[in-house]
Design a protein that fits this description.
By secondary structure, the protein is of the alpha+beta class. It has 2 domains: 3-123, Roll (CBS-domain); 128-201, Alpha-Beta Plaits (2-Layer Sandwich). 32% of the residues lie in helices and 26% in strands. It has 7 helices and 8 strands, in the order ααββααββαβαββαβ. A 4-stranded antiparallel beta sheet has the order 6-7-5-8, covered by helices on one side. 21% of the residues are buried.
Amino acid sequence: MLVREMMRSPVTTLPPEASLREAGELFQARGFRHLPVLDGGRLVGVLTDRDLRWATSALCPEPLSLDAPVEVAMSRPPITIDPLDPVEDAARIMRKHKIGCLPVMDGPDLVGILTGMDILDTLIKLTGISLPSSRLEVALADRPGELARLTAFLAGRNVNIHSILTYPDPDRAVRTVLRLGSSQIRPLAEDLAREGFRVLWPVPKPWPR
């Protein structure tokens, strides 16, 4: 999934000479938490609601008046992303820099904004959790063919796969989380366990030996 598919556009912006009071009114009226700052069409910074609260707080070493311009409180230089970048790259950048948004730049033009909430929406879409489905988690051996063996098993039982996510396990397995179009997830988990798969969720009941 690409940034352009999840970004918000058009973007509400402020000029650098706008007052902190104006920014605060926008934050409150529109429910924003981030406002890109454009100077003659050029992105020069981002003002967040946290920047505003800190800059005008009594805890700030040199608190600002609400009449001060946003350019004295905004974060700069802005960290940006391209609309054709993968959303997971955006999540990595936001986590690395501990920021809540990324202005989306197509060359010199601001074309959108991606926020932490947009990243959460992406996760919901990627996991398929918004569709009627059941969750299955299996630990696969880290070797070629294991995922194919699992999907072949599910296909043989006419079970549709809505999504697959994988991540490494500390014991050198590959944790595989699937959203399946089946309401009979526990019997399916038990059948998988009988076939030698290590099912992590739902925990299969032991069968008589």
